[in-house]
Amino acid sequence: MLDRSIGEFSRFAVIALGCAILGFSTGRWLPTIALGLAVYLGWVLWQQSRFNRWLANGRRGPAPTAFGVWGDIYDDFYRLQRRHRREKQKLHTMLRRVQDSTSALREGIVALEDDGNLAWWNPAAGELLSLRPEDAGQPLINFVREPGFVSYMQQQGRREPLTLPAPGNDARILQMEVTRYGRDEALVIVRDVTRLHNLEQMRRDFVANVSHELRTPLTVIAGYLETLEGSGQAPQGWQRPLAQMLDQTQRMTSLVNDLLLLARLETSERNSGREQIPVRELMERVAGEARGLSAGRHQISVECLQDATLTGDATELHSAFANLALNAVKYSPAGGPIQLRWWVDSRGGHFSVQDSGIGIDPIHIPRLTERFYRVDAGRSRDSGGTGLGLAIVKHVLLRHSGELGVDSTPGRGSTFTLHFPPSKLSTAASA
């Protein structure tokens, strides 16, 4: 830039000197110099006018040609123009590749603007959500009218995918997941999970039907075994086999009952009931059941730091609380302390069961809520467990917007905690 300024100043000085020499030779130096400077100024203004017209025309076509400082300016703009065209072409190529690749996906991809309006979608999303080209710019919630979808879109942070019927076709089940990026833009991924949903429904129906059909014959068998065992008329030497058969029948009955409960939790509505359950009374009832199972072998204490009322289904919450308390009795050695504790803080209400058992290795904790998963199969059979207790707890918490926390160290016992959001409880004072 400095070299250009010096060059233009030199050119201006040469013109002024030439005009001065011509003026002295003709004897009219002042008009000659003025005329030379006017011609130079007119040339500068003409080049500026050409430059302004080129800019006003949207810089279409090549930049004008000139010499001097204006030629350098035109050359710089020409280079910038070429670089911009190359970058624009590169961006178009990349965008076309992204669109081609997303168009080939079986999952639907929908790009939303910061106001939730449709910006772009691939063919799969158009087919799954019945979108047409003229729908661009409209809110997505105009086309997905499921009541829970609006609140799902308004949630912040990481969210689990939402499963809902396809717009206009209840037989098709979609799974939708929202990812936020940029300045409140969003990317919605839509998957067709109809086949998986139907398979899962078939599995649930099968388990529920088989469990229900097993219930009646098990009740009959258990009744006859109890009659034979208590009548004293059983053949000599049959007392032990009858006791074992009755024990296994009762164990099978517990398994069937748990399967039926789990099936009901999975097939019913996601949100739980609206009953008001006093937590202190629920804890005392659960502690009484745990003391009955323990038969004095454990020290069971109840600590309720702040009484509250939980909103939900009383039977389901009792099942979740009792499963944790009875598991603590089953897996704790005789004489060990077991503490049932409830407290409330800014994050909500929390119910914990702390035992003094053998503890759980950290590698097993992520799978504890799976059906029939056992850390120690032999020990679970000896304790009479069905392997479904924590699965039931997980589904009860899902229906009550809660979470399960597990803190365990091998050899030092375990602490299972149920976390409930503030929306599910009210303190005794406010109630």
UniProtKB/TrEMBL annotation:
<dbReference type="GO" id="GO:0006817">
    <property type="term" value="P:phosphate ion transport"/>
</dbReference>
<dbReference type="InterPro" id="IPR005467">
    <property type="entry name" value="His_kinase_dom"/>
</dbReference>
<keyword id="KW-1003">Cell membrane</keyword>
<keyword id="KW-0597">Phosphoprotein</keyword>
<dbReference type="GO" id="GO:0004721">
    <property type="term" value="F:phosphoprotein phosphatase activity"/>
</dbReference>
<dbReference type="Pfam" id="PF00512">
    <property type="entry name" value="HisKA"/>
</dbReference>
<dbReference type="InterPro" id="IPR000014">
    <property type="entry name" value="PAS"/>
</dbReference>
<dbReference type="InterPro" id="IPR050351">
    <property type="entry name" value="BphY/WalK/GraS-like"/>
</dbReference>
<dbReference type="InterPro" id="IPR003594">
    <property type="entry name" value="HATPase_dom"/>
</dbReference>
<keyword id="KW-0902">Two-component regulatory system</keyword>
<keyword id="KW-0472">Membrane</keyword>
<dbReference type="Pfam" id="PF02518">
    <property type="entry name" value="HATPase_c"/>
</dbReference>
<dbReference type="Pfam" id="PF11808">
    <property type="entry name" value="PhoR"/>
</dbReference>
<keyword id="KW-0418">Kinase</keyword>
<comment type="function">
    <text>Member of the two-component regulatory system PhoR/PhoB involved in the phosphate regulon genes expression. PhoR may function as a membrane-associated protein kinase that phosphorylates PhoB in response to environmental signals.</text>
</comment>
<protein>
    <recommendedName>
        <fullName>Phosphate regulon sensor protein PhoR</fullName>
        <ecNumber>2.7.13.3</ecNumber>
    </recommendedName>
</protein>
<dbReference type="GO" id="GO:0000155">
    <property type="term" value="F:phosphorelay sensor kinase activity"/>
</dbReference>
<keyword id="KW-0808">Transferase</keyword>
<dbReference type="InterPro" id="IPR003661">
    <property type="entry name" value="HisK_dim/P_dom"/>
</dbReference>
<feature type="transmembrane region" description="Helical">
    <location>
        <begin position="12"/>
        <end position="43"/>
    </location>
</feature>
<keyword id="KW-0813">Transport</keyword>
<keyword id="KW-1133">Transmembrane helix</keyword>
<keyword id="KW-0547">Nucleotide-binding</keyword>
<dbReference type="InterPro" id="IPR021766">
    <property type="entry name" value="PhoR_N"/>
</dbReference>
<keyword id="KW-0812">Transmembrane</keyword>
<dbReference type="InterPro" id="IPR014310">
    <property type="entry name" value="Sig_transdc_His_kinase_PhoR"/>
</dbReference>
<keyword id="KW-0592">Phosphate transport</keyword>
<dbReference type="InterPro" id="IPR036097">
    <property type="entry name" value="HisK_dim/P_sf"/>
</dbReference>
<dbReference type="InterPro" id="IPR035965">
    <property type="entry name" value="PAS-like_dom_sf"/>
</dbReference>
<dbReference type="InterPro" id="IPR004358">
    <property type="entry name" value="Sig_transdc_His_kin-like_C"/>
</dbReference>
<dbReference type="GO" id="GO:0016036">
    <property type="term" value="P:cellular response to phosphate starvation"/>
</dbReference>
<dbReference type="GO" id="GO:0005886">
    <property type="term" value="C:plasma membrane"/>
</dbReference>
<dbReference type="GO" id="GO:0005524">
    <property type="term" value="F:ATP binding"/>
</dbReference>
<feature type="domain" description="PAS">
    <location>
        <begin position="91"/>
        <end position="135"/>
    </location>
</feature>
<dbReference type="InterPro" id="IPR036890">
    <property type="entry name" value="HATPase_C_sf"/>
</dbReference>
<keyword id="KW-0067">ATP-binding</keyword>
<feature type="domain" description="Histidine kinase">
    <location>
        <begin position="209"/>
        <end position="424"/>
    </location>
</feature>
